[in-house]
Amino acid sequence: MVKLNKIYTRTGDDGSTGLVDGSRTDKHAARIEAIGAVDEANSALGLAAISLQGGAHAAAVERVQNDLFDLGADLATPLGEIGGSDFEPSEMVLRIVAAQGEWLEQSIDALNENLEPLTSFVLPGGTEAAARMHIARASVRRAERAMTALASAEPVNPNALVYINRLSDYLFVLARILNDNGAADVTWVPGATR
Hey, what domains does the chain have and what are their CATH numbers? Predict the structure, then answer.
């Protein structure tokens, strides 16, 4: 259980921040950029969730938001710094596991089952709920770019990379569901204004 008595610590006033292993890094480091992008995506998803007004989709989004906190903790724990296998979770290390990505895949398949196949790209919009979900999806894609940039320089949990990639697909399909099962999708018409 996390207990936060004091919100400010003054330890980051020098432009550094602490990681789970106790080490410190620059607030502009690639690892912190990835953690921040995941946090921004989670915030965008929280705004999108408001329009769901309860139900199964809201519960699923809440689950995803919790997973995104797990993902932030995973990224905040450099691989190999705290005992155990680098990619395996333990009592001391919270890691994204394959089952979290598999849940997204199963959810995508279940949601997509009743949608008509796409014949064009979908413009972000339609209903307010779908538009908000598209903003969250785009934020997740930015987080993925930040995570893959980090992964090009330092080891990143492969399950975390799979999870963030599947999440944007999940949010895309959910946006279509929120667009009256795709009936209210706004599709791209290439060259329409030439």
Answer: 26-183 (1.20.1200.10)
